[in-house]
Amino acid sequence: MSATEAGTLPMSVRHRCTLMRSAHHCTHRNGRPRSKRCTYCGGSLMVEEGVWCAFVWVGDASYPRRDAVRTFRSESAAQKWCDERPRENVVVRWVYA
Q1: What's the first-to-final CA gap in the chain, in angstroms?
Q2: Which of 48, 49, 60, 64 could bridge 97 with an S-S bond, Cβ 3.0-4.6 Å?
Q3: Beta bridge partners of 95
Q4: pTM (two decimals)
Q5: Residue 67 — very low, low, confident or very high, per pLDDT cuts 50/70/90?
Q6: Cα(49)–Cα(36) distance, rounded to whole angstroms?
């Protein structure tokens, strides 16, 4: 059984533009970006710690970490896992540490 299936949460880091809410072109970035500035608007990047989780979609936008089906270190791995299970109706969400 892997650590993600056993319930141990692998921590991840992502970077978010501090102006993301006001500039609609800004996006999240995983890992270590080459610059400390947003490539779209030039705003500074904020470091966030958390974990990528796969949840069964419930429609109320409430996804507590304890309800995660599985956890991941990267968004791409989580999305790939969910895409391989279209009938299970699972979605990827970021959960803060």
Answers
A1: 23
A2: 49
A3: 51
A4: 0.72
A5: very high
A6: 16
Q: Within 13 Å of residue 2, how many CA atoms lie on the same side as its CB?
A: 8
The token pair at 81 is 């896992």
Residue 11 sits at the vertex; the CA angle it makes with 23 and 71, to the nearest 5 degrees, is 95
CB neighbours of 28 closer than 8 A, spacing ≥ 6? Answer: 14, 15, 16, 75, 94
pLDDT per position as a tens digit, 32-65 = 677 888 877 888 888 888 999 999 998 888 899 9
pLDDT range class, residue 72, cuts 50, 70, 90: very high
